Amino acid sequence: MATKIIIYTDGACRGNPGPGGYGVVLMSGKFRKELSRGYKETTNNRMELLAVIAGLEQLKNENSDVTIYTDSKYVADAVEKKWVFGWEQKNFKKKKNSDLWKRFLKIYRKHNVNFVWVKGHSNNIENNRCDKLAVDASLEHDLIEDEGYKNNDNEQVILQF
What we know:
It is a single chain. This protein has helices spanning 44-57, 73-80, 83-89, 98-108, 125-138, 147-151; strands spanning 4-13, 18-28, 31-42, 65-70, 112-117. It has 161 residues and is an alpha/beta fold. The chain has one domain: Nucleotidyltransferase, domain 5. It has a five-stranded mixed sheet. The chain is globular.
């Protein structure tokens, strides 16, 4: 039987571009884990997508049933409306954040993932927690480079966690 996992994600950016961060809450049964990381200069969309990637990359067992709650239409619609698969067929030509989308697809295909869009800054406790994690991460003093944004060359770049 596949493990059922719930992941809440959010990204934040102070300016767009500007310092940014992501926040993630993973839950499965009685287990809960929070993740966050801040970057010197990035975009909101990159942080929204990186939050999803960071959450999925934490999963130890393949073929998990995963529900991802995000307030990012950019991420949710790209997957649920299958746009990202068309972008992939065209090798992400003229698409922003191709480094992250390639990384996302690699981990996405290891699980059974469903996206649920939630309204941001509403009464969703876990989405609000992710927002706080993301904003706080963007305010840290040890921000690292978002090499994918910095290089902007559409090559696969590994971001540090």
